[in-house]
Design brief:
This protein is α+β, with helices and mostly antiparallel strands. 43% of the residues lie in helices and 6% in strands. The protein has two domains: 1-132 and 252-279, 3-Layer(aba) Sandwich (Glutaredoxin), CATH 3.40.30; 137-247, Glutathione S-transferase Yfyf (Class Pi), Chain A, domain 2 (Up-down Bundle), CATH 1.20.1050. This is Glutathione-dependent disulfide-bond oxidoreductase.
Length: 279
Amino acid sequence: MSKDSYVPPRVWTWDKDNGGQFASINRPIAGATHERELPRGKHPLQLYSLATPNGVKVTIMLEELLEAGFSEAEYDAWLIRISEGDQFGSGFVEINPNSKIPAMLDTSMDPPLRLFESGSILLYLADKFGAFIPQDIRGRTECLNWLFWQMGSAPFVGGGFGHFYAYAPEKYEYPINRYTMETKRQLDVLDRQLANNPYIAGDEYSIADMAIWPWYGGIVTNQVYGAAEFLDAQSYTHLMRWAEKIAARPAVQRGRKVNRTWGELDEQVPERHSAEDFD
C-alpha cells in the first residue's frame, strides 16, 4: 500500500462532494427535495424523461408502436433536467421513488398506473400492445433474457466505464482498466450473439434491441462517451452491423430526438402529438 492510498473510515459519512460532472445532484438519501407538480397533457401516456440512453429506450418503443399503427400509444413527453434536480421534485418522486428517469403514467386507467425502470416500461408496453415481444414461450423467454441482461450489465458500463473514462474529475488507471475490460467483454458477448442472429433475441426485432441499442449501439458508433476508438469498436463487426441497421430505422431516429437537450442535437420536443411532429 502506498502512503497516498485511501483508507476507508469505520463508518462513512457524507461530508463533501465526490467531484465529477454530476456531483451536484449526488446524495446518499432518497426522497423529494422540493415541491413540484408534474405537467399532464392530453394523451394516454405521460412520459417524464430525458434523452439519455435509458430515456431513449422508451421513446424508441413508443415511436415504433405508433409507426406500427397503435394510436393508443400516443404520448406527451415532458423534459426532466436531471442536471438541475428535476427528478427530486415531489411529483416525480411520487411516480418513481428512486428518482431516476424515465418514468411514466398510463392515464388510460383510473387511477393512473405509475411505471418506472426502463426495462419495466418496455415490458409493460410490449404486453399492453402485444408488440415487439415474441408470443411463444421460447421466443419470449429469450427476449427477456437479453432485456434483463441489459438491465444488469449496463451499470458496469455507465456507472463504471463511463464515469471513470468520461466524467470523473481525474483519470485513474485502475478503474479505467477494470471497467474497460468488462465493457469489452460485454461488447464481445453481443458480437458473438449477433454473429448468428440478425437481431439480439433472434430473427425478430424486439424490446431487447430497443433496450440494448441506446447503450451499446451508441458506444460503438461513438455517440456515447466518445470512446469508440479507445474500445476498438470497429473490431466488433457483427455488433457494428446491427448498430447501424437499428440506427437507420425511422422510429429510432425520431425516438432519439424526444426530450433531447444535449449532444449533437440541441433541441427539445416537449410534447408528442403525432408522427408528423417529427417530419
